[in-house]
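User: Design a sequence. Structure:
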């Protein structure tokens, strides 16, 4: 314990000094605890995260905001059978195309094999695989490469509806691109459909 002796005439000066000393003590005591609590807080809004960023730095704000935005789509396993279609934004007037796909979820990466109809005199089907597949939470990216063509297509997708849907964009080049939609096909749904057709 520190005891400070002062003369009576120094009272106002000493009072101001003690107030400053107490303020510094409180800041040192409570700010680290507040920062630690913020880093573990999973319910920060965008506005709150911005305030934490201004006062305590980028990492605390980003960490808290990322936790608050985490959803089931960030970690859902995507292994299974998918059906879907792609459509053209450019060039205009091109027909839509359908496909089926089988996917194996490997965490941050995945593999997917496509089977698509092919309008060709000697071929009625074509296969494709994914190259350089990447996943970050609910975001997927990959390049689709066909077995019978040198064409490669870049896909960027977002997982939605608890892992039942993926949609996004595809691009060959600046002149050929569009959108794609994927839907997870489950055996129970096929059985239910069969029962409905028997009624």
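Assistant: Done.
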């Amino acid at each position: 314990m520190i005891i400070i002796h002062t003369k009576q005439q120094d009272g106002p000066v000493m009072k101001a000094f003690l107030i400053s000393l107490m303020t510094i003590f409180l800041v040192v005591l409570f700010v680290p605890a507040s920062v630690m609590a913020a880093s573990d807080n999973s319910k920060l809004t965008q506005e709150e995260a911005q305030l934490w960023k201004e006062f305590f730095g980028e990492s605390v704000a980003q960490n808290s905001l990322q936790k608050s935005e985490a959803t089931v789509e960030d970690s859902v396993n995507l292994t299974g059978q998918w059906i879907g279609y792609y459509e053209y934004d450019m060039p205009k007037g091109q027909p839509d195309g359908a496909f089926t796909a089988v996917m194996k979820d490997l965490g941050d990466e995945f593999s997917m094999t496509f089977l698509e109809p092919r309008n060709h005199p000697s071929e009625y089907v074509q296969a494709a695989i994914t190259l350089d597949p990447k996943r970050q939470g609910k975001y997927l990216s990959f390049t689709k490469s066909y077995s019978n063509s040198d064409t490669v297509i870049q896909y960027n997708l977002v997982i939605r509806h608890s892992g039942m849907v993926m949609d996004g964009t595809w691009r060959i080049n600046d002149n050929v691109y569009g959108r794609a939609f994927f839907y997870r096909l489950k055996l129970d749904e096929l059985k239910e459909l069969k029962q409905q057709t028997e009624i």
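Confidence is low (pLDDT under 50) at residues 1-9, 26-43. The first strand starts at residue 80 and ends at 90.
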